[in-house]
Design a protein that fits this description.
By secondary structure, the protein is α/β, with parallel strands linked by helices. It contains eleven helices and 24 strands.
Length: about 425
């Protein structure tokens, strides 16, 4: 029976025989979808007298919100920090491949790079810039091919949606640079924002910036970025706790890969790690923190400490590099050569870790196993929490009525069986029954 034409003649899909992650619990309910959004079945029945046009039997599987990866440097041979002649094609390839890991939205992440890389990868919109930058950009555009830019866009059959860029560096600490190339690190001069514009070219399509809050003049940058709706993350830093707390007061809301590339926890000054239990975080605000739950970057005991101290702030990130999905050997990360040995990725010739080769579904499974948390918590760390961090949890990271129908279907072992974006199946594991 077709749905009531007075509201919409778009088809309605009903997912049956499933457990839906809603309000922090797996609930045995059906899920109703129309025009890419989740429907309230009561309104559908009583107000519209409507019914489903098609049914999907999920055979008891879990339906969770699609995963959101806020830190991914590349994968499958593509390095987002390498300015190739087809930046858009590279991002599109990764966007397509990560569907099989349940990722429906992501932030392509650029590690510390020279300015010409940012200008090539991020679109330049010189109308927003002041006069003194026009000449600079004119020179840059003569030396760099201006490419069809990568813009924020929704996902679909072609791949996961891009929510914006995550620019990790170059405004970070020399002592905690990790795999970031030293020669391209920068600090803020008197007016930090002009340094940002000069380096990045534009802040269009930028969703997150990772910086070290101890750098002089960083506070005005944190405030300005936050006012523009850009998430500020603290990382690659030797900040003490009070510097980190100041940055949070100015608007910072995330910690880039907790424990990695920061001062280790010390009981007299816990540094950035202390934000997890700080009483100086303004009321009503949450400080979120990224964790690379690949079993390599963080000992399971450290993962458990963080989760037990501040469970609602934990955001799973892959920090995946070009070598994700590739065999062992030599690959790249931005300007560095890296070497894959087993599940470890090192800067070639060193024991410095430089991103992971883990996939998001691997991180969800490892986090659950290492922390002993509930299935719901593991799934929310990859969906609800990153959506809350980015301020988009009214539409993504949830399965509430009116939300986007970005879904991942999983078995009880948290293996991804199928991925949906806006209610459309975009990936399915082969050799398995319907759903």
């Amino acid at each position: 029976m077709p749905s009531n034409k007075s509201v919409s003649d778009a088809p309605i899909t009903q997912f049956v025989n499933c457990r839906i992650l809603r309000e922090h619990k797996l609930q045995r309910e059906d899920l109703w979808v129309r025009e890419g959004k989740i429907l309230d079945p009561e309104k559908l029945f009583f107000d519209e007298k409507g019914s489903a046009d098609q049914r999907v039997d999920c055979e008891g599987l879990i339906i969770a919100p699609g995963f959101i990866d806020v830190q991914i440097n590349g994968g499958y041979g593509i390095d987002f920090s390498q300015a190739t002649d087809d930046v858009r094609g590279g991002i599109a390839l990764v966007a397509k491949k990560i569907l099989e890991h349940g990722v429906t939205s992501f932030l392509p992440t650029l590690v510390t790079s020279p300015p010409d890389i940012y200008h090539k990868v991020c679109p330049t919109s010189i109308f927003l810039l002041t006069h003194q930058h026009l000449l600079f950009l004119a020179i840059v555009s003569l030396t760099v091919n201006v490419l069809p830019e990568v813009k924020v866009h929704s996902g679909g059959m072609e791949g996961a949606g891009v929510l914006g860029f995550h620019l990790e560096g170059p405004f970070i600490s020399l002592e905690k640079k990790g795999a970031h190339p030293e020669q391209h690190l920068r600090s803020f001069l008197s007016d930090g924002m002009s340094d940002l514009i000069e380096t990045y070219g534009t802040l269009d399509n930028v969703a997150m910036v990772t910086l070290a809050p101890e750098l002089p003049n960083s506070q005005s940058v944190v405030r300005e970025l936050t006012q523009r709706g850009i998430t500020v993350s603290l990382g690659h830093s030797v900040a003490n706790l009070s510097q980190a707390e100041d940055a949070v007061r100015y608007g910072a809301s995330f910690i880039t890969h907790l424990f990695n590339a920061m001062l280790p926890f010390h009981h007299r000054d816990p540094g950035i790690v202390g934000l997890l239990t700080s009483d100086q975080v303004p009321q009503g605000r949450t400080v979120f923190y990224g964790m690379i739950a690949d079993g390599i970057h963080t000992n399971p005991a450290a993962l458990r400490i963080a989760h037990r101290a501040h469970p609602t702030g934990l955001v799973l990130v892959t920090d995946a590099i070009a070598a994700m999905g590739l065999p062992p050997g030599r690959h790249t990360l931005g300007q560095q050569v890296i070497e894959i040995q087993g599940l470890h990725a090192y800067v070639a010739g060193t024991k410095t870790l430089c991103g992971s080769i883990a996939t998001m579904d691997m991180c969800v499974r490892h986090f659950k196993q290492a922390s002993g948390c509930r299935v719901e918590e593991a799934l929310e760390a990859a969906s609800l929490h990153p959506a809350q961090l980015l301020g988009i949890s009214h539409a993504k990271g949830i399965l509430d009525y009116g939300g986007d129908a970005d879904l991942v279907l999983l078995d009880d072992a948290l293996n991804v069986r199928a991925t949906y974006i806006a209610g459309q199946e975009v990936w399915r594991k082969l050799h398995h029954h319907n759903c």
